[in-house]
């Protein structure tokens, strides 16, 4: 282990500005090597993630669905309290399956709202908007194809409609918060906070700390879906950056540390090997057993979330969990 040198021979192509190219160039030069889980979600990665959400070990999606289903009327009441109209802004909307539960409830109870799903995947957004338009043709839906920060930027620039007092409710579901580092999390919630007005809300879905074996199994499922999800990143690099990763020479490796609450995914080189990344004109050496760190999935305690709220300009006002207390949907009020 400890191999950290790259043989570099820059070419004009090597200056490619694509975010994936940048990530591969810098991440594979680090020790240990790392690639951000942000790049998991090409079409195939998004498809595998859908399958993961149905895997018996991956309890997160089912737990959150239970919470939203059980507490949808409490949530609707909180969102519209005081007679406000609601701007429901969902960051990382994906297929919106869980959110549809909330939308349906708001719609059927004549709560005035508009739904603003934000996602970096255009396919996911189109699919979501298509099904919403079919089911509720007169619902106001304003999809935004962008990253979270651009969407927040637009939000703060937008003047509020004159029609009625409006409350912004930002939804950040599905334990997406877990894929940020601690400092990214604080930065993220501070930037949301700075763009909201007093009384606005953020609803976050968080995975809770629990028996380590339950968490470890969720990221090491028996069907090998998480393994395929992780390895797909190498397939994407092969395709988009003309690389020659041999997928059979890497394996998925998962750890969960109950002290830090961090599940970590790695790709492990099964032999000493060299990989060519032709679009970057680099050759990357791997020692036998050397890892690429690809994902962090953080698990929280209630105390940590109270601290996060306090540090970022919010107060934690409501806390909803599933019957096993595996997952929580938590309200931060500005
Ligand atoms: C999207 N994100 C919250 C998932 C998670 O649980 O960290 C991604 C995932 N990675 C492996 N399995 C699921």
Query: Which small-molecule species are bound to the chains here?
Result: N,N-dimethyl-L-histidine
Gyration radius over CA? 21 Å
Low-confidence stretches: 1-10
Shape: globular
The percent of residues in helical segments reads 25-40%
Number of strands: 15
Structural category is alpha/beta
Q: Strand content of the residues, in percent?
A: 25-35%
Order of helices and strands: EHEHHEHEHEEHEHEHHEEEEEHEE
Q: What is the distance, rounded to the nearest whole angstrom, between the alpha carbons of the first and last residues?
A: 47 Å
Characterize the biggest β-sheet. Answer: 8 strands, mixed
Report on this structure.
By secondary structure, the protein is an alpha/beta fold. 37% of the residues lie in helices and 25% in strands. It has ten helices and 15 strands. Strand 9 (250-257) and strand 10 (262-269) form a beta hairpin. Helix 3 packs parallel to helix 4. It is globular. It binds N,N-dimethyl-L-histidine. N,N-dimethyl-L-histidine binds next to helix 9 and strand 13.
